[in-house]
Automatic annotation (TrEMBL):
<dbReference type="GO" id="GO:0003677">
    <property type="term" value="F:DNA binding"/>
</dbReference>
<dbReference type="GO" id="GO:0006355">
    <property type="term" value="P:regulation of DNA-templated transcription"/>
</dbReference>
<protein>
    <submittedName>
        <fullName>Transcriptional regulator</fullName>
    </submittedName>
</protein>
<feature type="domain" description="HTH merR-type">
    <location>
        <begin position="8"/>
        <end position="78"/>
    </location>
</feature>
<dbReference type="InterPro" id="IPR000551">
    <property type="entry name" value="MerR-type_HTH_dom"/>
</dbReference>
<feature type="region of interest" description="Disordered">
    <location>
        <begin position="73"/>
        <end position="92"/>
    </location>
</feature>
<dbReference type="InterPro" id="IPR009061">
    <property type="entry name" value="DNA-bd_dom_put_sf"/>
</dbReference>
<dbReference type="Pfam" id="PF13411">
    <property type="entry name" value="MerR_1"/>
</dbReference>
Length: 113
């Protein structure tokens, strides 16, 4: 049975979702101060939705983008590598298309294409 969106996750649930061992999540807690799950009796960890989102972001930076822990710390503190929020649903397709074309042009200039 899957939990509702926004429900707290245990360390084992988050570990399974990210496919990383539990000790890695505990290590991340020592290296990323913003990652602070609730701890109940017996040191049981419960990750709030914000903690889950941050853990997903850390995992993405380390495993997908290839950052080192120090690089991921810097990227998170400087706001780099964060996924931009999705556009509101009421944005006209023409506006979205023009924004995407602008981004493509900036990327082309940056790559020298």
């Amino acid at each position: 049975m899957e939990k509702a969106e926004g429900a707290f996750l245990t360390i084992s649930e988050l570990s399974a979702e990210l496919d990383v061992p539990q000790h890695i999540l505990r290590y991340w807690e020592t290296r990323f101060p913003a990652l602070r799950p609730l701890q109940r009796a017996g040191n049981r960890r419960y990750y709030r939705p914000d903690d889950v989102q941050l853990a997903r972001r850390i995992h993405h930076l380390l495993s997908v983008e290839g950052f080192t822990v120090k690089g991921a710390q810097k990227a998170l503190s400087e706001g780099e590598g964060r996924t931009p929020p999705p556009p509101p649903n009421d944005v006209a397709p023409e506006t979205l298309l023009s924004q995407l074309e602008m981004v493509r042009a900036m990327l082309a200039r940056a790559l020298g294409v």
